[in-house]
Amino acid sequence: MADDKKKKDKEPDMTFFHPDLLEAPKDGSAPYLKGYRCKKCGKLDFPKLSPCPLCWGEDFEMVPLSRKGKLYSFADIYIGQPGMNTPYIVGYIDLPEDIRIFAQLDGEVQTFKCDEDVELTTGPIRMNQDGLPIISYKFKKAN
Ligand SMILES: [Zn+2]
Fold this sequence. Notes:
The protein is mainly beta. Helix content is 6%, strand content 43%. The protein has one helix spanning 2-10; strands at residues 22-23, 32-38, 44-45, 60-64, 68-77, 88-95, 99-106, 117-127, 133-141. The strands form two sheets. A five-stranded mixed barrel has the order 5-6-7-9-8. The radius of gyration is 17 Å and the shape is globular. 20% of the residues are buried. Zinc ion is lined by residues 38, 40-41, 43, 52, 54-55, 57.
């Protein structure tokens, strides 16, 4: 029993900020970001904005977002927040759904270029208070 608890405590935390951001299917299929489409006016947002900023609607349907996009802009970060290993990279990714997403980038500093193709991945974005990785979405160079 004690061993089970110990093992469970070491499993990465799969949530960050908000549980409605990322779906990482337990069957091993590719993770995806969860967009939310307003049922009243059709506006698609990520993350979910409720009520809808256009029409104040409160009913949404979840829409899996594209896994690939283009890097709009980015910054290499050398002095980070507590719990974050430096250097790391953050950027804005434009998805085909006309949504711009802020995310960490998975890769080496000084290797990314604006407008390059990137794709969704998952990985540690920071450490929790116990020094364990918190896993969430990131983007990496597309293959
Ligand atoms: Zn709306």
